[in-house]
From TrEMBL:
SMART domains per the UniProt record, alphabetical: ZnMc
Annotated active site: 182
Full protein name: Metalloendopeptidase
Binding positions for Zn(2+) per the UniProt entry: 181, 185, 191
Signal peptide range in chain numbering: 1-20
Domain named Peptidase M12A: residues: 83-282
Record-level GO cellular component terms: zymogen granule
Keyword set includes Metal-binding: yes
Cofactor, free-text remark: Binds 1 zinc ion per subunit.
Location of the protein in the cell: Zymogen granule
E.C. code: 3.4.24.-
Gene Ontology terms, MF aspect: metalloendopeptidase activity; zinc ion binding
Organism: Neogobius melanostomus
Name of one Pfam family that matches: Astacin
Amino acid sequence: MCSAMVLLCIFVAVLCQVCALPLKNSTEPNEVKMRMKRKYSDEIENWDEITAMDQILIVNSRLRAPRGVTFRDGDIASSYPRSAITCPGNACLWPKSVDGFVYVPYIMSPLYDDMDRITIETGMQDISAGTCVKFVPRTQQGSFLDIQPRYGCWSFLGQTGGSQTLSLQTPGCMWSGVAAHEFMHALGFVHEQSRSDRDHYVTIVWKNIMPDQTHNFRKQATNNLHSPYDYNSVMHYGRYAFSEDGGPTIIPKPDPYIPIGQRDGPSALDLHKINVNLELANDV
């Protein structure tokens, strides 16, 4: 009996010591700071509202730039001697033909399957159906788009001369709206929220932007073609682009609930600006 009591006392003493040990709290501040940042795709709560640019940033988050190429604004490529943004004297625009159309020759990688080609051609058609731009298979033209399933979704700005790569990775970039977005870059257009007058229409929430990505929100010296700001442009960043913690990085004003960006293809104002821009540039 005594030995049983002794054993019981020893067991109780050990149990008390174990209970006295501090428990690890999985939500301690130090551990929170150690957690990896959320992926950009984790910040998009409603996938029905994902924009073309949202999808581009998701795909390009794993992108390593090809040798000799840098990227600005998430998907605008630049070779080292050339600015990714400026287009001095409209030198980067494709010329207008005597029949009034702007022909953009292209070749397409044989690595694409039939569905990929249909998606890419739909992006072209969405632009051509409402503008003077016609995408045509290359024959002997010196300047042309070389559409390749490289890593990521990206394009150079405007016509660079000679063969210029336009990357539409498959399957990540295989949305016709994403294709149209990159083709608009190739036509010389930057993102809508990069407009010189954007501060009248949106607020950039700098504190919510990843510190190393703030350069992607710089305004550009754009010719706005006397066109209204287009919240519905396929070239507009999504509300949470480059968000560090899931908070919005772009808030429309005066109504903060106006939807911004979309994935369906060029808006009516996008098509209008293509026509006006090419008409003015080629008549100078």
